[in-house]
Amino acid sequence: MQKREELYRGKAKTVYLTDNEDYLVLHFRNDTSAFDGQKVEQLQRKGMVNNKFNFFIMNKLEEAGVATQVEELLSDDEALVKKLDMIPVECVVRNYAAGSMCRRLGVEEGIPLTPPTFEFFLKNDELHDPMVNDYHIVSFGWATEAQIAKMKELTFKVNEVLSKLFADGGMTLVDFKLEFGLFKGELVLGDEFTPDGCRLWDKETNEKMDKDRFRQGLGGVVEAYEEVAGRLGLML
Ligand code: ADP
Ligand code: UDP
Questions:
Q1: How much is the average pLDDT of 162-168?
Q2: Do β-strands 198-202 and 171-183 pair in parallel, antiparallel, or remain unpaired?
Q3: 125 in Cβ contact with 77 (< 8 Å)
Q4: Counting ligands in written order, which one lies closest to the CA of residue 30?
Q5: Which ranges in the chain are annotated with CATH 3.30.200.20?
Q6: pTM metric for this prediction
Q7: What CATH superfamily classification does 3-82 receive?
Q8: Is the peptide bond before 112 cis (omega within 30 degrees of 0)?
Q9: To test ligand 1's pocket by mutation, which of 13, 25, 187 has the most ligand atoms within 8 angstroms of CB?
Q10: What is the domain class of 85-220 according to CATH?
């Protein structure tokens, strides 16, 4: 597979075309951003850690029956993935209250959510990713009702599989964000699952092991990601 020209440069990854129109190269950069790109820093090793972490998690999800974009790890910081027609919404499941839910609803961080909640956000940095519901998504033509139902089903399935995986490593999966796209008409998990897009707390101490360390200036960001990987048995 030959890498061709850059298709899109996002805040943390660069997407390249390949000589096969069905596949893309995702390059995980060290750039780390928060607050819709207002805070940006380069964190050594983060691209490598997230690329390998994402490949590991997506393979676990494939084994559990979730169709994902992943094809092949190409290098430390690059992976070959299916080229998806991305649905421009983020799917967020929460097992405990944190982040924007606390700000929006005035609830305390760490409250258990039974059952877990599901939220859609429109991918739009300028508008600060506003929350949208099923009606907005169908009315604006971002996805069909059937695709919405499937995104919810798959996101809850991911929650089930990964909550167990992280619990076995002594961590609590607090919340996470997924993005889906279409590959030859099939709904497929795209983008990434890394500590950049989820919240993980140590089960005993509740210490944050995810991007909140960066958002809140706690330091030791990549070191925490490496600790998460190590606890899952992933050799980086
Ligand atoms: P952002 O666009 O939010 O700044 P990134 O830096 O992670 O985020 O950029 C990656 C971009 O590539 C995102 O817009 C994402 O929707 C898109 N993308 C991720 N996976 C795929 C895929 N398999 N096929 C097509 N586009 C993808
Ligand atoms: N998230 C993400 N990208 C976004 C927004 C959120 O990966 O553009 C993740 C975030 O890391 C967290 C979950 O989705 O794990 C819920 O995020 P929240 O709505 O609480 O927003 P935040 O306060 O994290 O910006």
A1: 98
A2: antiparallel
A3: no
A4: 1
A5: 3-82
A6: 0.98
A7: Phosphorylase Kinase; domain 1 (3.30.200.20)
A8: no
A9: 13
A10: alpha beta
